[in-house]
Amino acid sequence: MNKSLKIFLIMVILTFVTFSGVLGTKVISEEERLTKETTAIGAISFPAIYGNIVVWADNRGGGNSNIWGYNLKTKTEFQISDSGNAKFPAIYGDIVVWSDNINGNYGIYGYNLKTKERFQVSDSGNAVFPAIYGNIVVWADNRGGNSNIFGCNLKTKTEFQISDSGNVIPYPAIYGDIVVWSDNINGNFNIYGYNLNTQERFQVSDSGNAMYPAIYGDIVVWTKVDNNENKADIWGYNLKTKERFQITESNDAGVPAIYGDIVVWIGGIQFENTENIDIFGYNLKTKERFQITKSGKAILPEIYCDRVVWLDYRDGNIYGLLDVYIIYLDVVCGETNNSLPMNWIMKKFGLGNKE
């Protein structure tokens, strides 16, 4: 292949890569059901995903709630907990954490997917809704009759308190050094943040009725509820620029999740109707909204790279047992340098200096 042709092919590839990022986000796969039977538990399931592993709370066997996992690569299911009282799983890397009532009180427990070992994170007796990033696990804790956010460093095995208002909604999120949650400090529920490095708290939202935050990088997203008009929409905040922005204007959106430039949420929420509920998405870069599911019975999405998982009650009941589904989007996964860098292209076509 002569040099002119090589350069032409490189230009074609770069043009495709450039424009593929702005042509719009869309679904590129069929929906795939991960649960063999309709056994996922709705209100306490909240599926989570990291890499090729999906986890959720499952009621198989009847009357018992345990954490189960699914390996997308090997297409195999596996059991993680066996107490019969496990809820609210979260995952980061090889570590799965959840809330479990093992000794008559709810504590946070963990499982190492590599070593197959279970371990206890917190034994406060009232710990729920854990979230994890790196070595830090955070959760909502009602010790002493006050609901606050606590954390634990898995490496040093030290526990620490993050909030002190006693009025948090038990649904924290964490990314890097930043923890976010909904807190009633001044008579209204707003989103607040805490920097683990500087140990400083800060306010994110100011509208009131803000809940269910999620965070990725510098972006925090949450649900803003208007109780008077039964409306809910997704809002965002850029930690770097300190700017708030509205993501949805449909008045029926809630419980967002975020990864990279993609925000996903439940759309079609009607406060007295459980039909026509689906998962929708928004690309922060292209400002484009798009629909992800079409079952009309999809709730509680989570996203990792190009993978969106959710609970679906097309064969179950929103208040009972559901299934876990997954679908893929046409977004680039991994680090930036994995998406056809110039050095890789030059080397592939035999251009540039020889190593």
UniProtKB/TrEMBL annotation:
Alphabetized InterPro entries for the sequence: 6-blade_b-propeller_TolB-like, Beta_prop_Msarc, Bulb-type_lectin_dom
Entry-linked PROSITE patterns: BULB_LECTIN (PS50927)
Bulb-type lectin domain ranges (all copies): 93-217
Database matches in SUPFAM superfamilies: Tricorn protease N-terminal domain (SSF69304)
Protein name: Protein TolB
Species whose genome carries this gene: Candidatus Methanofastidiosum methylothiophilum
